[in-house]
Structures are given as structure tokens and as C-alpha cells.
Amino acid sequence: xxxxxxVLTISAVLALSTAACVSTTGGSxxxxxESTPSPNTxxxxxxxxxxxxxxxxxxxxxxxxxxxxxxxNAEAGVAPESRQEVIIGNPGDPDIQLTLVGPEGExxxxxxxxxxxxxxxHSFTEIIFFRAFDTPETAQQELxxxxxxxxxxxENIEMxxxxxxxxxxxxxxxxxxxxxxATGLIVGMNASIKNGNQVFHYIVDLDPRNYNAENxxxxxxxxxxxxxxx
Length: 230
Known about the structure:
The protein has helices at residues 3-20, 50-59, 73-76, 136-150, 154-164, 213-222; strands spanning 31-33, 61-65, 71-72, 86-88, 96-101, 106-111, 114-120, 123-133, 172-180, 186-194, 197-205. It is α+β, with helices and mostly antiparallel strands.
């Protein structure tokens, strides 16, 4: 990803993560469904037009087709030349049930904030969402599920469990690396803790340049993605 875009993304993410610590989801659980969509059926997917965003807010549900690992402007219902980011919800808002339909399965997860970023025209680059927990037990359950759901390496989960268990009043942040989970999507995971509240933010990678065999293999073995430009 272009460095300037990444810097802006990280800065905004940290600001939202700090706000999310104030209002937690109380351990809302996600569900994973391993599935192969039938070619004879076409489920309804959300769009990011003004009306589409309002519908997501009104229904508390969002569903996106990422089976080809991209979300184009056309699929999202926005103008082809648009590079506008879309943010739905804020910390403290009602939960949204977000469903990501990947090439190898789908996952439904609750979140209060969903952020769609652009790198180039014609296609979105990332879907970022946040989950917050106000007890160590619910946070640990989320961490345990991240191994299967998102492909995060167990050693990174253990590292954060050790770090978060020692934190007093200071805020601490760590990257838990990148994984390729049961959906077949590349997902990065970051964690922060302050005053006992743990916030996890997830970055779903929709840059097709990152979905090459070498990068996928490296992520699975090291938890680190390295883009191979075409």
C-alpha cells in the first residue's frame, strides 16, 4: 500500500481506537459459517450509496461480497472515479452485524464502526472494523477465535495476552500481525488496552496485488505480508 495512505490510515485508526475504549461492546460474539455460495442464488449485498449506508444503520446489518477479494466502486454503487472513504457508525452506536463473504467461507461479526478506504479509483482497498471488550475473559475469547477466524498466529495471541495482563493505567498498543483465515481473506489485527478495556481493530486487505502465492505463504508462516508488485 502507498506509504502516505497507510500513515493516514494508522493515524485515524488510533483515534477511533481510543474512542472505542470508552464504550465497549460487552463481548459481542461473531459467528463463522464455512460455506460455498451456490451459483444458482444471488444473496442481497449492501451498497455504499447514501441510501445504502442509511439502510445499514437502520437495519443494523451489512453484507459484502468479497469472493473475488475485491470491492469495486461498481459493486458498492458509487461513482467509478470516486476515491472517497466511507465510515459507518461510531463507538457507542448500536452494533452492526457485518458479514464478509470470502472466497472460502463467510463470517458475521458485530461492530460499531466500519471504515472503507480507497487507494485507487474504481475499487476500495480496505475494510476496517473495531471490536471492544471490557473484561479480560471476553477479550481472551476474541483472541482465541482470531486464530481460526482470521489466521492470526498463536504466538502473537500469546504475546498480547501476556502484555495485556501486565498493563496498569498506561495505554499499550501492539500489532498482532496478519493472517489468512477460513474466509480466504488477508486480515491484519491490532490491539490496544487502557484501564482494562481492550480494543481490537481488523484490517481486511482488498488490494489484489497482495493476493499472490508467495505473499500468502509468507503470511501463513510468519504473520507478515510482503507485497509483490505486478
